[in-house]
Amino acid sequence: MNDASSVETDIPTSAWPEWCYFNEVNSILRKVIAAAKDAESSRVGALYPLLDSIEESVSSLRTLASMQALRDSYVISRVIYETSINACFLLTSPVELTNRANTHAKQKALRNLVRRIEIAGYPLFEFKARGAEEILQDPGHKQWLADFTSKSGRELTSWPPENVQQRLEVIYTAFGSEAAKGLAFGLLLYRHASEIAHGTLYGTLFSWGAMELGRPLRSPEDLAVFRRAELRHVLKLISFTLESLVHVCAQVLSQQPLAEQATKARMNYYESRGKNA
């Protein structure tokens, strides 16, 4: 169990100090989104649609956490985290990486024109959109597909070759550890969220509190306390992630006051947590 469950007294959901941090940094993020929408693409590339999608997922997390839905809160948190990583990574080379991300998106759309499902070599389903053959013969479209096809003919499914850890290292180098450190803490979400999203036994047992080795939960009340503590942990880590997202974007958008506001939101959180401990 995370440190919140062992250090702090269980308190009502509405009184969690994490809510203030989460809501404050999201409010600041909305200002970043407005600035990104009006920024020149040469400075920010495809930043705006990524930020807009993060805001939507943050709204979903707020609802799920309020309902104390631990499993789905973890899964949507992974979506927020990885999209934040991608947004910050894109800003390390906005024109080049936006071009690659756009090519990846377009070749995905092309592949959707013809879909086949085979199980053990047996064809179960095939769909071909009207005009697909003509569209796929276009030389430019062929090149998009080639850019994301391996030598063995398999689709390359990731738009950057770098994994999450490697993308984070590029972000650290470009923007500095102080701006990016919240993204590093966000990695603590990733392992549990991935297990839950992939439907593993560990992911299921973790959400039941059954992976607390040496500290078994003895009652439904213990499970409820565990889940509330984990949800507070999720909100805190996502707030760290969003704060770093604000810091990185603020550097590129020349919006330093927003970065300062995000830092102040974290300081306010630590102060309020002490009062509610």
Keywords for this entry:
277 residues, 13 helices, 2 domains, two-stranded antiparallel sheet, single chain, mainly alpha
Give a brief outline of the structure.
The protein is mostly helical and 277 residues long. The chain has helices at residues 3-7, 17-38, 41-44, 47-66, 70-90, 94-111, 132-136, 139-147, 164-175, 177-197, 201-207, 220-253, 256-276, and strands spanning 114-119, 122-128.
Topology overview:
Layout: H1 3-7, H2 17-38, H3 41-44, H4 47-66, H5 70-90, H6 94-111, E1 114-119, E2 122-128, H7 132-136, H8 139-147, H9 164-175, H10 177-197, H11 201-207, H12 220-253, H13 256-276
Antiparallel strand pairs: 1-2
Helix pairs in contact: 2-4, 2-12, 2-13, 4-5, 5-9, 5-10, 5-12, 6-8, 9-10, 10-11, 10-12, 12-13
How would you describe the overall organization of this protein?
With 277 residues, the chain is mainly alpha-helical. The chain folds into 2 domains: 3-98 and 162-276; 103-147, no CATH class. Helices cover 72% and strands 5% of the residues. The chain has a two-stranded antiparallel ribbon. Strand 1 and strand 2 (122-128) form a beta hairpin. Helix 5 packs across helix 10. The longest helix has 34 residues, at 220-253.
